[in-house]
Amino acid sequence: MRSPGLARGALGLICLYTLTLGALAAFAPHTFYDDYPFIGHWVKLLPPYNEHLVTDVGGLYLGFAVVFAWAALKPERTLVLAASTGFIVTALLHLGFHADHLGGFATTDAIGELAGLGSLLIPPAVAIWAAGSSRAAAP
Question: What is the pTM of this model?
Answer without folding.
Answer: 0.88
